[in-house]
């Protein structure tokens, strides 16, 4: 199992290793075969300078490797958003706010990670630059044929799972942090969207986009969140038994494959033995989302608004699977969009009322393990399978984005099993409760 940032930082502070030594380990991992198609461009020399800077060991990130999704501006680098359409754009004149905060905290930025074109898929496939293969942070390479890494933060998830980065900055609009976390056996925390600025990032949905990170542990997730959100997480000494937890039956448990069902039920049993109070609730409101988003949802409308001029000039250069979903936004009228805003506001109120009295809800992050890359690779005959898989991967996670909520995915599988994620989640600004509960859950699962 990979050492996390908090432990490695303590080793650096104690003089047992140095930031430059640890950075070289990360660079070696990034250049290894497990990281094929993970990085679009690297900045290793700049990272080496950051790791060797005076006093860096005293900073929260201690000169350790951090990767950045190819959606966020890094000064001097082109932000291409996983597309050839923006490949000739000028280099970013400055870091976006999220990257700037990571640098000030002592990050050694190692490069831009590959992603789904314009962040529009939960699968992780990119026909332009290749698709990285999922990797298990706990147990290494997955057996058998290469499997999808999850998207849209595909390279981000694999960069953490392989040891190429301690933290991966990414985005989450419908699950793009938590899906790669689940499929690569790492931790992904989607904070309440308003807590971290998204300036300097190519948007998918300005309503739903969230800047957040993948990490190797929940305590690392807290470190990353405190830096990105420029706030302190309130820690709680309360034991697991003091928190009220619920498992929603509607939608979230539908269509689970055998591996996910086994890991999820085993996890609930472990937590109950540790004293957790876990109720089952119906939460029928989640079944209303399909109708609410029937006209295409925020991602279609808002991405089309951003892309429509580019599409007029470069439509043929887009991944057809991405272009078709962006173009769906052209059919939405202003009245449709306003209706969607009102429907979301009312739905959030109903959901928050139904969840009152609970500190977090628990569900599988995604209901299936990672399918093979070949099964969803570009090709007309595989489009139906791609969209089926994409819908399943996004189904559970996207509920939280529509809720304007927060969610943590952490691994709950055993050795010899494909990675499976457990998601703890709640409504907006319950971030600290979700993180505190996540720490307790992680501790119980590690002691199995």
UniProtKB/TrEMBL annotation:
A Pfam family: Amidase
Protein name: Amidase
Residues covered by the Amidase domain: 27-435
Organism: Alicycliphilus denitrificans (strain DSM 14773 / CIP 107495 / K601)
Gene3D superfamilies, sorted: Amidase signature (AS) domain
Molecular function in Gene Ontology: catalytic activity
